[in-house]
Specification:
Strand content: 15-25%
Number of strands: 4
Order of helices and strands: HHHEEHEE
Distance between the termini: 99 Å
Shape: elongated
Strand order of the largest sheet: 1-2-4-3
Largest sheet: 4 strands, antiparallel
Helix content: 40-55%
Amino acid sequence: MFKLLTDEERQKVAHEYALRRAIVMLSAFVLVLVAGIIGLLPSYVRSSARQNEALERTNITDASFERGEEAQLQSWLLSTNKKLQVLSPALDTDRPSEYIDRILEQKVVSVHLTGFSWVRTRDNKLTLSVHGVANDRQSLISFENSINSSGHFSEVTLPVSNLAKDRDINFQIKFSPATPPPSSRTP
């Protein structure tokens, strides 16, 4: 049908076609632009709010330093650092968990452990205590012998009064960790 038109009509139709194509392209561009703005506007508003909040916090922090609160904050920081130094693993040279694991390795089935004590005397000597309940005398003596023969502990003492009962014996065994030979110590 386009071929049946005159040259003047063809130019008008081609002009109209180009005009409509430009309008469709412009409309598509505007539509993409509006969709992009709608999609990015919430994150822009959110980031602006966060930026304002950060500026507000910096202003408050600057104002607190101007009011003389830096001494109070500095003392808080020092006390926190001291508390963290107390919890430092470098200060934990005794490692009680290792000794507790060694005790648990020696435990007999019919002995139930209820508590552990770890005491360092003034002369820097460690004393460990294990509290528990044994089903019978034989299991308690077996537990004491296994601790004694393990080689990890010395001065194992089980009070004779603990052996007075036949069943459900509450006991407390005291002992000291054996000092490892110098070759097995880790630096």
